[in-house]
Amino acid sequence: MVTEDSLEQVHQKFLNAKSAQGAWREVPLQKKLQAVKKFSDLVEDRKEKLAKILTEEMGKPITQSRNELNGLKGRIDFFLENTEKTLYPETVFSEEKKLEEVITHEPLGVISNISAWNYPYFVGSNVFIPALLTGNTVLYKPSEFATLTGLAIADLLHEAGVPKDVFIPVVGAGKTGQYLLQQKLNGIFFTGSYATGKKISEMAAPQLMKVQLELGGKDPVYVCEDVDVASAAAGTADGAMYNTGQSCCSVERIYVQEKIYLKFLDAFVETVKGFSMGDPMDEKTYIGRLTRGELQIEVLEKQVQDALSKGAKLLTGGKRAQRKGGAFFEPTVFSDVNHTMELMREESFGPIIGIQKVASDEQALALMNDTEYGLTASVYCKDPERARKILEKVHAGSAYWNCCDRVSPRLPWSGRGHSGIGSTLSKLGILTFTQPKAWHRRYPT
Ligand code: NDP
């Protein structure tokens, strides 16, 4: 039985993290790296158990929970291999025996990581691994929909040698997150929706602390006329429906060149009809239950009604599915959509997609950019120059050519507009947990 932290407990956890930070900062990097490596090994050893916790808790199909854990090692390895060189002091000016100018990087202090439920192992580790390696202490609040997963992460970090006051789980729902923000933190790293991210940045503003926000998306794909239609349809259908459509970088809008529009729709619908939905513990399941249950069914039903009332054509799905063990929604595909419809404007976060016909690259680009969000965007075509011209004008933090719904630890993960502020992953995602110190060193004459 898990109990929610009270305001007093959250405050005490903050005080503990604050007093532990000085000593943790002094722990040599090699020792911190050893603890993180041990954590990675423990995850590898207990993968099956950890996958089951996630699947039981949030309904992610078991094969996809395993995929998340398999991918975690690559992310952690990136931080293990790159933290030392990224933090190395940089001499930017030097006059022999006269003057030296050097940049070093210091931890922020006590940071809070408020995390989403959809990829708790992935999105959490993008924050807490580099935060710990750079000498911060971390107050980690998993989503109420992924509390047990969050507590399993904390246990493994502690077992790996990270002291209990250095990485502290904070348990509770949104209200607990608000308590956290009332503490004198040095940074808040939030993953979640635009609506909550906006509230958090307003609440954090008076403290002038660092605020980094990884928020939602309405990610577009443009499919050109020269592609292999079957493979583009299969790739984008997976991008739209993987994790039951509950990914920040899920494909949420598709624009298809008119010459292949009908052929693409057929291939896309055929792929989607092949997705099996049901018990997330079943090895064959591809679409699981919706983690937020009835709350998300309401969002999806509203988008369906709005699209139908404005003339969209329903090609498959469109309603809740009767399955045991939670709220399920049929994988849903609409054609003949346009930007007056909520389906093409608001984040759906479920197995539903609108596919719109376009006549030119210019029209596709204008539609791709017709959004407040800016997380990822992709172009499927043969010619790299054509893709480059479109993607360099796209308002998004990640640009994909012939792929989608992809994250690499070597590249910065960042959003524009309502998709957030700041970057995780890559060297930028290490430096973001530090503050620079500028050294002006003049030798005595
Ligand atoms: P929410 O915004 O609902 O919640 C995110 C976290 O914030 C949860 O831990 C939540 O707690 C907490 N929270 C809620 N209200 C407050 C508050 N007032 N103050 C402080 N903390 C609060 O998002 P979801 O968890 O539903 O995640 C889905 C969203 O996350 C989608 O929009 C998705 O696109 C986005 N996302 C973005 C990613 C990115 O990398 N850009 C990656 C993954 C997801 P609780 O859940 O306990 O209420």
The fold-level CATH name of the largest domain is Aldehyde Dehydrogenase, Chain A, domain 1
Which overall shape is indicated by the principal axes computed on the Cα atoms? Answer: globular
At the first level of CATH, the class of the largest domain is: Alpha Beta
Largest sheet strand order: 10-13-14-9-8-15-16
Q: If you average the pLDDT, what whole number results?
A: 97
Outline the fold blueprint.
Blueprint: H1 7-26, H2 29-45, H3 47-58, H4 62-87, E1 90-95, E2 99-107, E3 110-114, H5 120-133, E4 137-141, H6 147-159, E5 167-169, H7 174-181, E6 187-191, H8 194-204, E7 210-214, E8 219-223, H9 229-241, E9 251-257, H10 261-273, H11 294-309, E10 313-316, E11 320-321, E12 328-329, E13 332-335, E14 352-358, H12 361-368, E15 376-380, H13 384-391, E16 398-401, E17 413-414, E18 420-421, E19 423-424, H14 428-431, E20 434-442
Parallel strand pairs: 3-4, 3-6, 4-5, 6-7, 8-9, 8-15, 9-14, 13-14, 15-16
Antiparallel strand pairs: 1-2, 2-20, 7-18, 10-13, 11-12, 17-19
Bound molecules: NADPH dihydro-nicotinamide-adenine-dinucleotide phosphate.
Give a verbal description of the structure:
The chain is of the alpha/beta class. The chain folds into 2 domains: 7-215 and 415-442, 3-Layer(aba) Sandwich (Aldehyde Dehydrogenase, Chain A, domain 1); 219-401, Aldehyde Dehydrogenase, Chain A, domain 2. Helix content is 41%, strand content 21%. The chain is built from 14 helices and 20 strands. The protein has helices at 7-26, 29-45, 47-58, 62-87, 120-133, 147-159, 174-181, 194-204, 229-241, 261-273, 294-309, 361-368, 384-391, 428-431, and strands spanning 90-95, 99-107, 110-114, 137-141, 167-169, 187-191, 210-214, 219-223, 251-257, 313-316, 320-321, 328-329, 332-335, 352-358, 376-380, 398-401, 413-414, 420-421, 423-424, 434-442. The relative contact order is 0.14.
